[in-house]
Amino acid sequence: MYGSIAAIGAGLAVLGAGIGIGQIGGKAVEGIARNPEASGKITTAMLIAAALIEGVALFGVVIGLLGGAK
C-alpha cells in the first residue's frame, strides 16, 4: 500500500518539475525573441532556475520513496 502512495508522490514531484522547467524554457525563448541582446543573461538565469527546480524535484522523489519504504 505504501509503495503505491510513494510512487504517486514521486510521480507528482517529477510532473511538477517538468511543468516548471517547460514554463521557464518557454518564457526564456519569448524573452530572447523580444530582446536578443539580453540572451546571455536570460539563458544564465534560466539554467540556474532549471537546476534549482531539478534539485527540488530530486529531493521530492527521494522523500516520497523513503516515506513509502516503511
What does this structure look like?
It is a single chain. This protein has 70 residues and is mainly α. The protein is built from two helices and no strands. α1 (2-34) runs antiparallel to α2 (39-68). The protein is elongated, with a radius of gyration of 16 Å.
Strand content: under 5%
Name of the CATH superfamily: F1F0 ATP synthase subunit C
* Tally of separate domains: 1
Categorize the overall geometry: elongated
The arrangement of helices and strands along the chain is HH
Mean pLDDT: 90
Q: In DSSP terms, counting alpha (H) and pi (I) runs of 4 or more, how many helices?
A: 2
Architecture (CATH level 2) name: Up-down Bundle
Instruction: State the secondary-structure class.
Output: mainly alpha
According to CATH, the fold-level topology is: F1FO ATP Synthase
Low-pLDDT windows of residues: none
Number of strand elements:
0
- Tell me roughly what share of residues is in helical segments: over 70%
Please describe the biggest sheet, giving its number of strands, its sense, and whether it closes into a barrel: none
